[in-house]
């Protein structure tokens, strides 16, 4: 069994993933994921787990502590006035300038934060080579979008990595840096594009139609994917979240969901169907394909709706953006991706931990520990 971990995007919502991972580390000591892939904000979590020469338990605790201590000013800054936004919208596309002049928010604070938490003095992700050499890690990958070609690029650091090429996506072996993580997390228009070499890159979720593909390419046959999207019931899906003409915020939320969250659901559904077909065929007729065990965990609460509860308390750049986008939606998904507020982050970590506990049996079965757990339970019963 080769375990792989896929951490999807969602901005601040990625803090939910840390609660799930923390529960797994506590409930199932000795768990390790030698293949780790991060997309968008999930790349930040992937970098935390891959760096530092600790075990999964220590690294998940470090990851949770980092999220609980982060503040909005450690992620982005901007000039808090309407004239700035107007100047941005009217700026010519060929004007010189980078950083804050090219996006609504400046993410240099996030760069400094990542350098402190997961980088070394030269900007590379720390300790990854040592962990690969020690056998604790096989590969770690982050995904970004090449703005020049429109291709999805997966940068991989690991052992014996073969480059893969498709018209819409490529995999490249490299030594990962903080800039690769910054590129993967660069929300279009909101965060500035990141220059690597002679090319500018943006968020990895923009054109990623098959988010499971990189971790499959890297050889995982048991994949845990942690989504930040709540699975609505049919009744919830049919209920409108706004009345009247849609404000810009509602349109932005739909676009963000389409870019960062919808593709994992579709890809997981397709993998389930392929697995079902493969299991009906003898091995000699599978054309080299193999069934892959997939477990997708997702929030038990609508994280966008939860963000709406914090909207009256927001200040600074988010308050400005909220005024521009409109606040009529009952589930402002756009806000949930930028809400790096202490109270909201803490709630997401708690929900993630709770959801991990709720799905304990599913996780145990995925880790192939169900039989072992039954044996231990019987031993405890006899001892008691």
Task: Describe this structure in a few short sentences.
This protein is α/β, with parallel strands linked by helices.
SS summary, helix count = 17
Give the oligomer, counting copies of the same chain as homo and different chains as hetero: single chain
Which sequence of SSEs, written as H and E, runs from N to C?
A: EHEHHHHHEEEEHEEHEHHHEHHHHHH
Rg from Cα:
21 Å
What average pLDDT do the residues reach?
85
Task: Give a topology summary.
Blueprint: E1 3-7, H1 15-27, E2 35-39, H2 42-50, H3 56-69, H4 82-90, H5 108-118, H6 128-134, E3 139-146, E4 152-158, E5 164-165, E6 169-173, H7 178-184, E7 194-196, E8 199-203, H8 213-217, E9 222-226, H9 234-238, H10 248-260, H11 262-279, E10 293-297, H12 303-310, H13 316-325, H14 333-338, H15 342-358, H16 360-366, H17 370-383
Parallel strand pairs: 1-2, 1-9, 2-3, 4-6, 9-10
Antiparallel strand pairs: 3-4, 3-8, 5-6, 7-8
Structure description:
The protein has 384 residues and is α/β, with parallel strands linked by helices. Helix content is 45%, strand content 13%. The protein contains 17 helices and ten strands. Strands 1, 2, 3, 4, 5, 6, 7, 8, 9 and 10 form a ten-stranded mixed beta sheet that branches. The chain is globular and about 60 Å long. The chain starts with a strand and ends with a helix.
Features:
alpha/beta; 17 helices; 384 residues
């Amino acid at each position: 069994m080769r375990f792989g971990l896929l951490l999807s995007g969602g901005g601040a919502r990625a803090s939910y993933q840390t609660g799930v991972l923390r529960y797994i580390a506590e409930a199932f000591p000795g768990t390790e994921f030698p293949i780790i892939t991060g997309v968008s904000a999930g790349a930040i979590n992937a970098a935390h787990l891959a760096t530092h020469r600790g075990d999964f338990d220590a690294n998940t605790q470090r990851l949770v502590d980092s999220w609980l201590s982060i503040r909005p000013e450690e992620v982005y800054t901007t000039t808090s006035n309407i004239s700035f936004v107007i100047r941005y919208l009217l700026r010519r596309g060929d004007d010189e300038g980078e950083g804050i002049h090219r996006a609504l928010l400046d993410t240099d604070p996030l760069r400094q934060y990542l350098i402190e938490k997961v980088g070394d003095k030269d900007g590379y992700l720390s300790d990854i080579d040592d962990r690969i050499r020690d056998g604790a890690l096989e590969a770690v990958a982050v995904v970004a979008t090449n703005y020049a070609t429109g291709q999805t690029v997966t940068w991989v650091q690991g052992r014996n990595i073969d480059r893969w090429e498709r018209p819409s996506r490529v995999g490249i072996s490299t030594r990962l840096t903080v800039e690769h993580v910054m590129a993967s997390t660069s929300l279009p228009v909101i965060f500035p594009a990141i220059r690597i070499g002679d090319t500018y890159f943006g968020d990895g979720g923009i054109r990623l139609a098959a988010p499971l593909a990189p971790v499959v390419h890297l050889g995982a046959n048991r994949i845990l994917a942690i989504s930040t999207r709540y699975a609505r019931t049919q009744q919830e899906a049919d209920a409108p979240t706004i009345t009247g003409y849609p404000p810009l915020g509602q349109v932005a939320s739909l676009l963000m969901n389409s870019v960062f969250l919808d593709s994992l659901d579709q890809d997981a559904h397709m993998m389930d169907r392929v697995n079902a077909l493969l299991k009906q065929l003898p091995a000699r007729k599978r054309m080299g394909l193999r069934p892959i065990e997939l477990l997708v965990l997702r929030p038990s609460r609508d994280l966008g709706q939860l963000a709406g509860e914090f909207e009256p308390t927001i200040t600074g750049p988010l308050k400005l953006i909220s005024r521009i986008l409109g606040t009529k939606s009952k589930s402002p998904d756009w806000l949930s991706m930028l809400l790096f507020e202490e109270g909201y982050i803490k709630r997401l970590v708690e929900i993630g931990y709770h959801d991990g506990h709720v799905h304990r049996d599913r996780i145990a079965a995925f880790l192939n520990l169900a039989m072992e757990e039954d044996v231990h339970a019987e031993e405890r019963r006899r001892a008691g």
